[in-house]
């Protein structure tokens, strides 16, 4: 579903991604963990074309987004193709990014109407079904300002699902939440994993990585140091840097 090879990215001379490679199979849940500033979010944003890569190769469901030739020149596919590939992925951000002037329902139906040109009557039943799924149908007509952080994030997940993506990318979805609110968001994500949604999750939640992710990848200083099946990764991390990081999280 995702193939990223040799991704490099710098910001103003600072190398943020150094030859990062990762693949994701259909239905797989992969957690990316690592210290602050290690490049996790940037990597996710490159996959979703919120950032451009300097070099490397990205293909989503077998369709190439960007590739690099033998001379090291990186090129992207056409804008139309970039948009087509982008629609395969939904993204959930740390800071929810809900539209404050729209109701919960309005937030969910906006993109299907504007981007996909769907009729309101066609999308509202699906939006309501998604709100039931995330346990927020009673908030249908509320504005985001009246919701808790956990509720906002569950609306954001429903909003991403409304576009019927094949892959969900999560960028630290619980980092902005009070500890007592993370559980409800993680439960929703766990449910999606059980339904075989393909998910790539940047997270500081070691419990989630251990219990829900099939595979865990560790990044440090722009490098993907190691990845492996979750149980093995936590029981026998291969690299000293991974061990030191996991120690620091205890
Ligand atoms: N748009 C940008 N312009 C300049 N530097 C950036 C930009 N985005 C990220 N960076 C830098 O790139 C590095 C990696 O940042 P990134 O947010 O990817 O790390 P992270 O591992 O996700 O960290 P955190 O866990 O704190 O979110 C940091 O040094 C950051 O300051």
UniProtKB/TrEMBL annotation:
<dbReference type="InterPro" id="IPR017871">
    <property type="entry name" value="ABC_transporter-like_CS"/>
</dbReference>
<dbReference type="InterPro" id="IPR050086">
    <property type="entry name" value="MetN_ABC_transporter-like"/>
</dbReference>
<dbReference type="Pfam" id="PF00005">
    <property type="entry name" value="ABC_tran"/>
</dbReference>
<comment type="similarity">
    <text>Belongs to the ABC transporter superfamily.</text>
</comment>
<dbReference type="GO" id="GO:0015424">
    <property type="term" value="F:ABC-type amino acid transporter activity"/>
</dbReference>
<dbReference type="GO" id="GO:0016887">
    <property type="term" value="F:ATP hydrolysis activity"/>
</dbReference>
<keyword id="KW-0472">Membrane</keyword>
<keyword id="KW-0813">Transport</keyword>
<dbReference type="InterPro" id="IPR003439">
    <property type="entry name" value="ABC_transporter-like_ATP-bd"/>
</dbReference>
<dbReference type="InterPro" id="IPR030679">
    <property type="entry name" value="ABC_ATPase_HisP-typ"/>
</dbReference>
<dbReference type="InterPro" id="IPR027417">
    <property type="entry name" value="P-loop_NTPase"/>
</dbReference>
<protein>
    <submittedName>
        <fullName>Amino acid ABC transporter ATP-binding protein</fullName>
    </submittedName>
</protein>
<keyword id="KW-0547">Nucleotide-binding</keyword>
<dbReference type="InterPro" id="IPR003593">
    <property type="entry name" value="AAA+_ATPase"/>
</dbReference>
<keyword id="KW-1003">Cell membrane</keyword>
<dbReference type="GO" id="GO:0005524">
    <property type="term" value="F:ATP binding"/>
</dbReference>
<keyword id="KW-0067">ATP-binding</keyword>
<feature type="domain" description="ABC transporter">
    <location>
        <begin position="2"/>
        <end position="246"/>
    </location>
</feature>
């Amino acid at each position: 579903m995702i193939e990223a090879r040799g991704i490099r990215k710098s910001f103003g001379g600072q190398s943020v991604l150094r030859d990062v490679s990762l693949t994701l199979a259909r239905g797989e849940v992969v957690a990316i963990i690592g210290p602050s500033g290690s490049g996790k979010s940037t990597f996710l944003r490159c996959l979703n074309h919120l950032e451009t890569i300097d070099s490397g190769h990205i293909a989503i469901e077998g369709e190439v987004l960007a590739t690099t030739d033998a001379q090291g020149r990186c090129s992207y596919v056409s804008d139309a193709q970039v948009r087509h590939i982008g629609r395969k992925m939904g993204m959930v951000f740390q800071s929810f990014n809900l539209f404050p002037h729209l109701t919960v329902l309005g937030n969910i139906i906006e993109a299907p109407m504007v981007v996909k040109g769907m009729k309101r009557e066609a999308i509202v039943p699906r939006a309501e079904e998604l709100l039931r799924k995330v346990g927020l149908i009673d908030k249908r007509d509320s504005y985001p300002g009246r919701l808790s952080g956990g509720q906002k994030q569950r609306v954001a997940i429903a909003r991403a699902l409304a576009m019927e993506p094949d892959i969900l990318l999560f960028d630290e979805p619980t980092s902005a939440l009070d500890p007592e609110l993370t559980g409800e968001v993680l439960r929703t994500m766990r449910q999606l994993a059980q339904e075989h949604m393909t998910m790539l999750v940047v997270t500081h939640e070691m419990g989630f990585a251990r219990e829900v992710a099939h595979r865990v990848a560790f990044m440090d200083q722009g490098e993907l140091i190691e990845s492996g099946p979750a149980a093995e990764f936590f029981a026998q991390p291969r690299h000293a840097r991974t061990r030191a990081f996991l120690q620091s999280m205890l």
